[in-house]
Amino acid sequence: MRILHLSDTHLYGDPAARHYDRIDTTAALRGLLERFDAVTGLDAIVHTGDVSEDGTAESYRLLHEILEPFAAAKDATLAVVMGNHDVSATYGETIALGDRGTSVQDRVVAVPGGGRIVVLDSSVPGAGYGHLEPEQLTWLGEVLAGPAQGAPGERDAAAGEPATGGTVLAIHHPPLVGATKLLRGLDLDGLDELAGVLEGTDVRIVLSGHYHHEMTGAIAGIPVHVVPGITNVVDPVTSGDREQSRAQSGASLIEIGQGAPRVVTSVFPNLGDDLDDAEIPVYDFGPEQVTAIVEAAGR
After folding, report:
1. What is the pTM of this model?
2. Fewest Cβ atoms nearer than 10 Å: which of 55, 59, 149, 227?
C-alpha cells in the first residue's frame, strides 16, 4: 500500500472565515495538494481528522469537492476520520457512505490489493481529548481477528482472513503521550486497553493527526505516525513553556510492503497564510492560556 496521509484541515463553511484570524484553510489544503500532484502510485488517501473547524455540512462538502477529484485522478481510495473539532453526525448525514470508500465513525475501508484501513472515531463531543468506548475496542478486536467486514456496499478486503495486504489503523488522537503540556491534556486515554487489542494483529501502522506536528512511536510494537497539520504546524521542542504554531503545512507518504513501513514527510510554507511574515507564530499561548485550554477541553 502507498498512502498519502493528511490531517487537520480545519475547514469552514464560510469562505471568508480564517483560522486564528489568519489562515485560509481552504487555500492551505488546495496548496498542499498541488505540491503532491506529481505523486503517483497512490492506493489510498487517509485524512486523520479535524476535517472541519465549525462542524458544518458546508465544510464537509467542501472537503469532498477538493479531495474527491484528487483521489479520482490518483485512482485512490479515500478514508476520512473524525476528530475532536468534527461533528460525526453532521458528516454522516452530509456525505454518503461509499463515496470512494469514505467512512464514518468506526468502519473498515478496503484498499485494492488486499489491504484495508480501519477507522476509529476517538472524538468526545464537546471535548478536546480522545477516548474509545469498550464497545469500540470490542468491535476493533473482532475486525482484526477475522475478515475485513465493511459497511454495506463496501468491498470485502480479505474474505475469511485478516487482510492479506495488512491493516492500517486510522485514529485522530495518537496512541502516544503528547510532547507538550497542552497536548498531554488533550491526548488519548486508555492506551493499555488499546494495546491489548492490537497486540499480535495484522496492523502494520497506526496513522494519527491532532498534534499538528510530526511524531513517531509505537503501541504494542506497532509503529505510530503522527502527521503535521495542514492548517498549521506546532513547535513541540523549542517553544519551552509556551505553545506555538507556525504558518506551515505538512503531509506524509506511507509505504507498506516487506519489512517496516516507510514514512516520508514534507513540510511547506502555508499557502493559505494571510500574513507576509511567516516567522510570526499563528498562535503563541503562554502558560496561563495553556492551563485554561486544558481545563476547558481536557480530561
Report:
1. 0.93
2. 149
